[in-house]
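Colleagues,

Please find the record for the two-part complex below.
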Amino acid sequence: MSDNVADLGEFGLIAAIAARMPQTRHVVVGPGDDAAVVNAPDRRVVASTDLLVEGNHFRRDWSSGYDVGRRAAASNLADVVAMGAKPTALLVGLGCPADLPTEWALRMADGFREEGEILGVSVAGGDVVRSSSVIVSVTALGDLDGRPPVLRAGARPGDVVAIAGRLGWAAAGLAVLSRGFRSPRVLVEAQRRPEVPYEAGLAAPGAGATAMCDVSDGLLADLGHIAEASGVAVDVDTSALAVPDEMRDPARALGADPMVWILTGGEDHALVATFPSDAVLPSGWRAIGTVGDGSGVTVDGAAYDRDAGHDHFRVP
Amino acid sequence: MSDNVADLGEFGLIAAIAARMPQTRHVVVGPGDDAAVVNAPDRRVVASTDLLVEGNHFRRDWSSGYDVGRRAAASNLADVVAMGAKPTALLVGLGCPADLPTEWALRMADGFREEGEILGVSVAGGDVVRSSSVIVSVTALGDLDGRPPVLRAGARPGDVVAIAGRLGWAAAGLAVLSRGFRSPRVLVEAQRRPEVPYEAGLAAPGAGATAMCDVSDGLLADLGHIAEASGVAVDVDTSALAVPDEMRDPARALGADPMVWILTGGEDHALVATFPSDAVLPSGWRAIGTVGDGSGVTVDGAAYDRDAGHDHFRVP
């Protein structure tokens, strides 16, 4: 039995991971050659890449290998969906210390596989290297199926701002874990593993979405990206952002304002989009604001006075 | 002036890097949205990903940011070319400590740009995160232009084995650097920055290459991959592998056998391929062996008695 990845060796680990990764119909050539070959029927391919680093994006005492695999896959699949594309494949790089338990790496592979299965997507290739802490790089590919990509730059004055998915849950979970608690479980789970609103995202282009973005830096920060790219102003109506019951008790216990989690928390991988005012929002979307002339993001018509988002080099 | 990446911030660093990255005609949507959109005229996309970790794949006291960018781009572009495809775009993830000099990151971007320019390829997207040491993840995309991919599994008994590019130069450079020397400069440079035989690689499919592989684990190890995938035996003829003059003096000084560097050294990103015996080898390729019935790799008809390749978890 191979207890850690050094016992198994680089090629043994790759083989063990690949054995857990059945390939989908999108994949022409899977793991084991110099590169993967993936179908791109649209003649354009959408491609997004992320790096996740132990101690910054996850902690092994808080998240299992399975959780990290789910999260890493989800964050990239959400990016592809946010472009208006349907994901087709994942590529994964794993850096790990020689004493990483083999089970951790294999469970991470399971997480990738199961998150991918939601969308019919497999890990078509990757790389395994040695590093002092665990590092996961992910690239997701996707297909536009003949449609133009949904950019951040397409919002127009008069549009409705809508979100799909959860906001602030991961931030609340992180706040709970950071104070040494392990509950409420639903918030801690949200921090470990986002629930990306894939179906809602896939329905957005057909419903006329003019702009779309994955909420990874926090709602206000990511709406700021849309406002800037589109040359418009965005106002968020907090009365449309109900504070979930699950957040009330921990917010009180931690002396926190749950609306800050909702407005500025990243890592839930919700989707935010703009739609023409007469559009029928697809299932899973709810209106939370409006697009106007001008620039910047306001909350209930006023400037927001708290730190509005996440900068990886300026962690509070 | 922003002396280190924390002064500039995540978004400032991304903007500064993107400003140095003009996009090519392959790129429909470049950096700045949730994902890149890249042309894939063949309706299939070739995709390869690698992770490079400071202290394992490079050392900042030995390699500049520029060198690391060149090397990281080259290693992935070589993988795409080894599939018989023409590279179309790169995606890059950079993990760096807050005190990384901004200049280092920008010079790395220059390295990516200049290596890409050899093939008309740009960095279409990426990610920047904080990490305790420098980490670079790279994904290269490519197009098959209507041809089948050149797999590792296509070698047939009777084929000729040929190589393009340099073998053992990076290993010799590493041996020199490891003993505290900085010369011969040509070997040290080879360790810092591979010279990938892109043109020869791009010509291989048209000349009938039956199998092809990027030499990253060492010639014998990578020929082992071809032999195993193809179900054939490979014999290497060392009389066709001349020891370059540049290696003779350092080999003597270090008490090393230069043929070991040539047969087992990785990281030069040479290409090894098999061709039908009656093929006319394109410019840049030279015959170094033959394919036969059986299994495994022999050298001059005999088993090779030294460690034949590189395993990232079992570094000598």
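The first strand of chain A starts at residue 27 and ends at 29.

Comments are welcome before we finalize the supplementary table.
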